[in-house]
Design brief:
By secondary structure, the chain is of the alpha+beta class. It has one domain: Alpha-Beta Complex (Nucleoside Triphosphate Pyrophosphohydrolase), CATH 3.90.79. 15% of the residues lie in helices and 33% in strands. The chain is built from 2 helices and 7 strands; from the N terminus they run ββββαβββα. The longest helix is centred in the middle third of the chain and has 13 residues. The protein is globular, with a radius of gyration of 14 Å. The chain starts with 5 loop residues before the first strand and ends with a helix. The mean pLDDT is 95.
């Protein structure tokens, strides 16, 4: 990261259903990286813990309620995009209240991580790609 790049902190979740599938969300039209599929989550506000930000974002984006003990730190992504550097902890979550709805996304899809590897139907941001083999190995 050079001195002119801003650091963007985001938290994301790998929501895993009982069948071992993970939820991915498609970025809506008009947003940066529109059309790409990502793990749900969002920006960490100043003074906010990553877990608190993730719980808030999952409520806003998917309409689900996640409790802190249900978030297990898993891994993280660090990626230099043009103009900013992304640092993103990824949490695994297997329990939540409610049914995920695409409140801020174009679509949602439950998919096995092994089916994401090299799948042109679900292009993902560069920062998310290294996370897929780790999730595949976990599940």
């Amino acid at each position: 990261m050079n001195e002119t790049q801003r650091l963007l902190l985001v938290a994301a979740a790998a929501l895993i259903d009982p069948d071992g599938r993970v939820l991915i969300a498609q970025r809506p039209p008009g947003r940066e990286m529109a059309g790409l599929w990502e793990f749900p989550g969002g920006k960490i506000e100043t003074g906010e813990a990553p877990e608190t930000a993730l719980i808030r974002e999952l409520k806003e984006e998917l309409g689900i309620t996640v409790k802190l003990p249900c978030l297990a730190p898993f891994t993280f992504a660090s990626h230099a995009y043009p103009g900013f550097h992304l640092l993103m902890p990824l949490y695994v979550c297997r329990r939540w209240d409610g049914t995920p709805q695409p409140l801020e996304h174009a679509a949602l899809k439950w998919i096995r991580p092994r089916d994401l590897v090299g799948n042109a139907d679900y292009p993902m941001p560069a920062a998310d790609l290294p996370l897929i083999p780790m999730l595949r190995d976990l599940l």
